[in-house]
C-alpha cells in the first residue's frame, strides 16, 4: 500500500494507514541499518570529531596542567560531551520527522521561553559580560545553542506548510521576520551576537531556497541591514568596538588583544604548522583556545593545511546536506528537505563565522566551531543536528527491495 | 523545485569559504612578517645563562672556594601579585612574611621582574614550583661556598650575591674565575614559564679554576695557632705568613680578626682587609739582622768585633736610645742575640746612611711584592737626621707589611738572594731567581746569630722545636695609634726560618696589641712559630737537622721495639 493513495480516504482510514506506514518504515530502518546512512556524511562527521578530540586536547592542555583536577580535565569533559552527543545523534537519527514537524511550534515556544528565562537575574549565569548559560547543577546549558536547531526546525516546518503561499509578502516575509526578529532580539539581549547572525542568516538562506520572491527577499534584507546599522549607530562606543576588528593593532592590549593573538597563531602556523602540540598561543596568550579560538590553534599547529581541511570538511557537510535535501524534496518531503538545507547552512555559516572571526574578517564575537569546539551545549546540539540530517537521509532513501521508505508527504 | 537557487546558495557559501582560505594565505604571506615580529615580542625572551664560577684550589687540589647551584624565586609582578590567595603555602615553605612580599609587589608593580626570595636550596624551590603559582619562576644561580669557613677568608675574599668578586683573590682573579655569561632565546608562556629553548645566542663559558700556592693544611693550623695565641694574650689581632724556600711560594697567609665568608650577616665593613698586605707596621728588632748583615758585608767588621753598649743608653742628637738591660761590651754576634738597640745604632752610624738605606731597599722594604690586590708598599724614605739614621737601624722610622718582612727574610733562608714571592704555583723544584743582596758568608754568620736567638740564652727560646734547628728574630714594637707611639701598646713579632742548616720555610708571626702579662715577641709570637713550624716539618717530611747520629739510632731502635 502506498501512503500517497490514502490522501482521499476517510479519517479512520488515514489513521490506520499512518500507523501501518510507521510500522513499515520502522521495519525498513531495521533492514537497512548499515546501508541507509550517507557514507560521505558519516566520513565528515567522524573526521570532524576525531580532529576535534585531538585539537581540543592540544588546545586545552595548558589549562589542564594547571588545574590538575580530574573533574575539570577538558579532554575528559570533551569526550563525555561527544559520548553523550553520540547517543543524542542516534536518537535524533531515529526520530520520526513528521512528528518533529508537528512539534515544531511547541519547540519554538520552549526555545523562546528559555531565552527569556536565561535573561532573569539569578537564573542565567554571566560569563565575560554575557548571560548565556543556565546552570543545571554542574552542567551549564546554553539556550541559544538549542535555539539554533529549534529555529531551523520551526522554519523548515513553516516554509513546508506555507510553501504555496510564500510568494505573498505577508507569509513569505512578515511572519518569518517577526519570529526571526523575536529570536534575534532575545539573543542580542544576552548578548550573543554571533548566534543571532548565524540563525538569521541561515533562516534567510532557507527562505531564499524555499522560494520566497527575490525582490521581497532583497527588500527585507536591506531593511534588516538598515535596522542593524541604526541600532549600532545609537551607541557609538558599541560601533567602535564592533569595528575594532578592522584594525586590532590600534589597541593591541585592549580591544584588539584576542584577535591579535589569534592572528599571530595563524601567522605562526604558515603552511603546515608548527607541529601538533607545539602551539605557543595556547599557553595562556589566547583565551578560550579550545573554544572560540580553536581554529587559530589548528592554524598554528597544523598550518593552513589544517584550516583548509576543516573548511573542506564543512563544505562537504554542506554539500551532502544539500544532496540529502534534494532527494527528500524530490520525494515531496518538504519539511525534511528544508530541514536538511537549514542544518547544512547552519553548520557552514557558523564554521565560516568562527573562521572569519579568527582571521579578523568579522567582528570578534565569541562563537564556537560546530562539532569541534570544547563546549558542551555546542557539541550536543551539533550532534543532534547531524542526527537529524541522518534521519532525513534515511527516511528519503530507496530501500534494497525497490521499496521507498517514505514518510507521508509533509504539508 | 528551484535548483537554480540551490546552486546560488552553494556558490555563495563556497565563495565565502574561498575568501576565508585566501585570508589565511594572506596571513601567512603578506602579514607574516608583522605577525612574527609581534609574536616574538610577546613570548620570545633572551635568557641569561649564568656561568659557573671557577673554583679556587690549594696547592694539593683541595677546594678553597666553590660555587654551588642555588635557585632563586623570581616573579612577574603583573601576574604574580594578582592572585594572592595562592601564596600561603609558598610563604610557609620559604619563611617569608606576606607583608614583605606585598610591599615588593607594590614597589615593582611597573616592573616585569622581581625577586621573591633569592638563593635557596634547589630542592625547596622545586617544591615551590610544583605549586604552579602563575607568574613565578625559578632562576638558577650560583652561591659561593668556602669549605674552610673563616680560614684564609681574608686572602680568598668573597663574591657578591651575583657571584662577582668583591675582595681578595675573588676580586683579583675575577675575570678568570667568572667566565662569560651565555645567552639563549626561549619561548615563554604568558604565566612566565620557559617552554622551549629556541637558539643559543652566546655560548656560556664557565669560569676557570684558580690554583694557588696556599697549603690549606698549613693555613688551617696557622689560623688555629694564631687564634689561640690572640686569645691567650688578650690581643686584638694578628697575622701569619709562611713562605716556601726556594720557590718563594706563599704557603700560608692568615690574619685576625676573622670573618666567615659563608655567613654574610656576620660581616662588618673593614674586617675583610687582608692585613698581612694592607696594613703596615714598624719591624722593630726584626730588622736588626739586616743592619748587622750590612755591617758584616762591609768586611770591616766581623761577628766577633766588640761593641760597647754600656750603660744601656746612647745619646744621639739629644735623643736617648735605650736597651732593656746594660749588656756592656758585647760582640756584633751578641748585638743580634740580645737585640741591643744601642749596639745596632752605634754600628749603623759607623757607616754612611745610604749603606743602611740601600740594604733595606735591597731586601724589599718599601716596594710591593706584587702578588696580591690591595697590597701597599710601606714607607722607606731617605732621612737626613742622625737620630733617624740610628732608629732606622733597629727597625723604626719605616714601615713594612708582614708579607714584605717575610720576603726580606728569604735572603737569610737562601744564601743571600731575595726571592720574589708569589701565590701562583711554580713548577715543582722551581728555584726562584732573585737578586743577590748578601754574600753567602754573611748569611751564614747571620743564620748562626738567628739560631742563637732561638736557644735558651736568646730572646726566643719558645721558638724552638724538637729535632730541628731553627732561627729567627723577635721584635716588640711600640704601636702607633693616631700618629704617635703609645706607651705599653705593642706589636709582638717573630720572624724565623727552619731548618737552619737548609731552610725550607720562612715564617713571620705578628700579634697585635697583646694586653696580657706577656708582650715580648719571644713570649707571644715565637710559640706560634714553634707550633706551626713543627707541623710544617712533619707535613713536608723535612729531614731533621737537630739530631746527631746516636739520637737517630736510638729513635729508630724505639720504633723497632714498638
Description:
- The complex is a heterodimer of chains A (411) and B (562).
- Chain A is mainly α and 411 residues long.
- Chain A folds into two domains: 1-35; 40-402, no CATH class.
- Helix content of chain A is 66%, strand content 3%.
- Chain A has 13 helices and three strands, in the order H-H-H-H-E-E-E-H-H-H-H-H-H-H-H-H.
- A three-stranded antiparallel sheet of chain A has the order 1-2-3, with no helix packed on it.
- In chain A, strand 2 (130-135) and strand 3 form a beta hairpin.
- In chain A, helix 2 runs antiparallel to helix 3 (74-93) and helix 5 packs parallel to helix 7 (193-210).
- Chain A starts with 10 loop residues before the first helix and ends in a 17-residue tail after the last helix.
- Chain B is an alpha+beta fold and 562 residues long.
- Chain B folds into two domains: 46-70 and 140-211, Penicillin-binding protein 2a (Domain 2); 216-561, DD-peptidase/beta-lactamase superfamily (Beta-lactamase, 3-Layer(aba) Sandwich), CATH 3.40.710.
- Chain B contains 21 helices and 19 strands.
- Chain B has helices at 3-28, 32-43, 77-80, 88-94, 98-107, 122-129, 153-156, 168-172, 174-178, 216-232, 275-278, 288-297, 332-338, 341-349, 353-362, 386-393, 402-413, 440-453, 521-524, 526-539, 549-561; strands at 44-49, 56-57, 63-75, 114-120, 136-145, 182-188, 194-202, 210-211, 237-244, 250-256, 306-308, 313-316, 319-322, 329-331, 417-418, 435-436, 471-481, 484-498, 505-512.
- In chain B, a hairpin with a 2-residue loop joins strand 12 and strand 13.
- The interface between A and B is large, with 47 and 37 residues.
